[in-house]
Amino acid sequence: MSIDDWRRRIDEIDLKLIALLNERARCALEIGREKHLQGLPVYQPARENEILANVERENPGPLADTAIRRLFERIIDEARSLERAAQHEDTAAVQAKERPKTRS
Amino acid sequence: MSIDDWRRRIDEIDLKLIALLNERARCALEIGREKHLQGLPVYQPARENEILANVERENPGPLADTAIRRLFERIIDEARSLERAAQHEDTAAVQAKERPKTRS
Predict the structure, then answer these.
(1) Least CA distance to A47: which residue of chain B?
(2) Residue B103's Cα: distance from chain center in Å?
(3) Distance between alpha carbon A5 and the CA centroid of its chain, in Å?
(4) Residue B50 to residue B72: CA distance in whole angstroms
């Protein structure tokens, strides 16, 4: 296979990665909403450590375990940002509709 | 669905992400070998910009385009590290087998 062939294969993989990363983000948003309803904090270090331990354990290579860990740290970080943004939107919506409340 | 249900779904997605990220890394290694044979540099900014433009264009959300771009910058960065490491191994193997050569 030529460099161009391998690149086409990477482009196909990237489409699948985009779909999965967004599907994962949707799940994180649902979790964020549920945490908000239950008054739980967005940042739950035990769960984040569980995810990182899982991905290191399941990693078959050729990516090093440290590399896959770094990538998932970024993926988790983006999910957390999205959860936070959604919580602020929910809070703003509640404030607008129901009661005056100071923003945390 | 409960938080635990969503988390199980994320764990399933993560297994697929691990597989795809490693499949992508294998492609990058093949490209790295081919570049090495052809005397091309590992870092090819035009191709990296093409990938980033692709993923931003294809991103359906809920991840922001800036978020998906940041994630792929990291994915590309890990691929480049792996290509570099493989080229050094290839160079070392050639040095050992064929001819004395100063390491770049």
Answers:
(1) B7
(2) 24
(3) 31
(4) 12
Q: Phi and psi of B40, rounded to 5°? A: -95, 150
Residue that the structure tokens 């081919």 belong to: B34
DSSP state letter for B98: T
Option in B35, B47, B63 nearest A78 (CB): B63
Q: A35–B82: do the CB atoms touch at under 8 Å?
A: no
Q: How many CB pairs under 8 A join A and B?
A: 143
Q: Per residue of chain B (104 residues), what is the pLDDT tens digit?
A: 899 999 999 999 999 999 999 999 999 999 999 999 999 998 999 999 999 999 999 999 999 999 999 999 999 999 999 988 887 777 777 677 765 555 55
CA distance A37 to chain B (A): 11
Please state the ipTM of this predicted complex: 0.88
Which residue has tokens 């005056």? Answer: A100
How far from each other are the two terminal CA atoms of chain B, in whole angstroms?
A: 56
- Please give the Cα distance from B79 to B72 (Å, whole number): 10
- The burial class, CB within 10 Å (0-12 / 13-18 / 19+), for A37 is exposed
